[in-house]
């Protein structure tokens, strides 16, 4: 299983992804505004690796002038169904189809790790205007919640892919791991949660690339066992998912 095959696996499950993946809390976008040094309202923003438009929709609600960039045909098609009035272009962070110095802010929600930072960092700097900013973030696993940590271990054992959030890393190491150590980077963590049905929770879990590449049989085996375990923990079938958003904002000189 290669990184490329995992990255492209989302296209066949775009509707599942869009319907069940979590969004992001208002406090995250407050932090983006603070660290970028400008409000989102009126900002020219490129949301790269936009997927089905989960982050794009919030950026637009905050008043940003957003263009989405998405490499996958399936994800782009779902984006157009969800946000028909938002412009979207096909492309990826390693070769942005955008003009020089044309954007105030470039965002990557859950997608920066799919890029080659030797290429995507210079591309972001090329497209950003002077004084602009690059913001990358991930909803990461709240390992301090016992049932979530136990589930993460089961997912890793079943799929053979271990989640590697860098929340535990110090700020300088996190910037280095993200390929941003040569830039002026500020980091922020935002904790939040949502309550969803058991079905939504399981659909969210299995919309991740580790499951999408397993195929139906491998996924169903996990779902059957996991549904039974979670019904014991959540007899009303209402699951509180807790996340820690790891945000890095890099300023363009």
Automatic annotation (TrEMBL):
SUPFAM superfamilies reported in the protein's UniProt record: S-adenosyl-L-methionine-dependent methyltransferases
KW Protease (keyword) present: no
One Pfam family recorded for the sequence: Methyltransf_11
Domain Methyltransferase type: 47-135
Presence of the UniProt keyword Kinase in the record: no
GO MF terms held by the record: S-adenosylmethionine-dependent methyltransferase activity
Sorted UniProt keywords: Methyltransferase, Transferase
Domain of life of the source: Bacteria
InterPro entries: Diverse_substrate_MTase, Methyltransf_11, SAM-dependent_MTases_sf
GO annotation terms (biological process): methylation
UniProt xrefs under Gene3D superfamilies: Vaccinia Virus protein VP39
Classification via PANTHER family: METHYLTRANSF_11 DOMAIN-CONTAINING PROTEIN (PTHR44942), METHYLTRANSFERASE TYPE 11 DOMAIN-CONTAINING PROTEIN (PTHR44942:SF4)
Similarity field: Belongs to the methyltransferase superfamily.
Protein name: Methyltransferase type 11
Organism placement in taxonomy: Bacteria, Bacillati, Actinomycetota, Actinomycetes, Kitasatosporales
């Amino acid at each position: 299983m290669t990184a490329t095959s995992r990255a492209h696996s989302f296209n066949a499950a775009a509707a599942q992804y869009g319907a069940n993946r979590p969004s992001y809390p208002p406090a995250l976008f407050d932090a983006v505004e603070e660290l970028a040094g400008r409000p989102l309202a009126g900002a020219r923003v490129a949301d790269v690796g936009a997927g089905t438009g989960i982050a794009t929709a919030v950026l637009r609600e905050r008043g940003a002038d957003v263009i989405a960039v998405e490499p996958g045909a399936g994800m782009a098609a779902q984006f157009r169904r969800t946000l028909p009035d938002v412009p979207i272009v096909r492309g990826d962070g390693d070769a942005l189809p955008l003009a020089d110095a044309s954007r105030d802010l470039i965002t990557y929600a859950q997608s920066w790790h799919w890029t080659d930072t030797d290429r995507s960092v210079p591309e972001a700097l090329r497209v950003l205007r002077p004084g602009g900013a690059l913001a990358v973030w991930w909803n990461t696993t709240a390992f301090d919640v016992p049932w979530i940590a136990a589930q993460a271990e089961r997912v890793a054992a079943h799929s053979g892919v271990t989640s590697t959030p860098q929340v535990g890393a110090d700020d300088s190491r996190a910037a280095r791991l993200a390929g941003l150590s040569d830039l002026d980077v500020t980091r922020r963590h935002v904790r939040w949660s949502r309550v969803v049905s058991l079905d939504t929770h399981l659909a969210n879990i299995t919309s991740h690339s580790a499951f999408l590449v397993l195929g139906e049989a491998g996924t169903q085996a996990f779902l059957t066992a996991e549904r039974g375990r979670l019904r014991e923990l959540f007899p009303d079938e209402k699951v509180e998912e807790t996340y820690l958003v790891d945000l890095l904002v890099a300023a363009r000189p």
